[in-house]
Amino acid sequence: MGQESSLKQQVKKKLMEYIQSMDLEKGNRLPSEEKLSTMFGVSRVTIRSALKELEMEGRIFSRHGSGTYVNPMARRIAFNLAVPELYENIIRKGGRTPDVRVEGVITEAAGEEAVSSLGVSLGETMVAVKKTFFAGDRFSMYCIDHFPKEQLTREQMQSFFNPELSIFDYLYRYKGRKAMWDTMRIQTVTNRQFPEINGPAGLSGEECHPFLLLKGINYDKTDTPFVYSHTYVDTEVIEYNMIRKKAYKYEPFY
């Protein structure tokens, strides 16, 4: 199951690259599943599965009896909230150079949010990794990832200060756990509600600045939550969008 999913994601990535390279002025129709299968050297089942995901994301659409087409509007969207990506890649897609700074790696006692999000025991030792993301020289995001410390050594804890890898890379390396999917709760907040943003964002605290707060919970292949995060996004720099496929069924009229 894991290998099939990995292959599908690889094919999906190649399809996205192919879509980005298309000259839509000459047409936005994709080749048939059979031709795509030959182009990418995979089965039609894998192609169909990858196309289905792209259609659910609104990047392509199908017309019965006609074929599958690229949604031109989807190519203009750099940051799709429905598609999980590393924040560094989101910044690159916006045409800026990412600069990631680890503000701190601390241990803390699990509170009520950790208990409800991850099912840990109240007071259990947790790790919090705090990172600031800049797009060029502009602040864009402040992220805090929380996860149980468990058997992590001091040396392993120190490695989280290296921003070249994400915490998910390290947790896979140290604990063998992969993030397979997540849930996201979205709120609009201000720095006055969460003054911890002021330092990383370079705010004095006197002004009131809005942020998008993304509260995520990440699950492994056994559907067990193991990381929860708070990410404060400056939407003046990172503008998230979504494309939604309408599933409304219209009643026939006569």
Task: Draw up the topology in text.
Layout: H1 2-21, H2 33-40, H3 44-56, E1 60-63, E2 67-70, H4 87-93, E3 98-109, H5 112-118, E4 125-135, E5 138-148, H6 154-159, H7 167-175, E6 181-190, H8 198-201, E7 210-219, E8 225-233
Antiparallel strand pairs: 1-2, 3-4, 4-5, 5-8, 6-7, 7-8
Helix pairs in contact: 1-3, 2-3
Detailed description of the structure:
With 254 residues, the chain is α+β, with helices and mostly antiparallel strands. 29% of the residues lie in helices and 28% in strands. It starts with a helix and ends in a 21-residue tail after the last strand. It has a 6-stranded antiparallel β-sheet with strand order 3-4-5-8-7-6. The protein folds into 2 domains: 70 residues, Winged helix-like DNA-binding domain superfamily/Winged helix DNA-binding domain (Arc Repressor Mutant, subunit A); 147 residues, Chorismate lyase-like (Chorismate lyase, 3-Layer(aba) Sandwich). The chain contains 8 helices and 8 strands. Keywords: DNA-binding, Transcription, Transcription regulation. GO terms for molecular function: DNA binding; DNA-binding transcription factor activity.
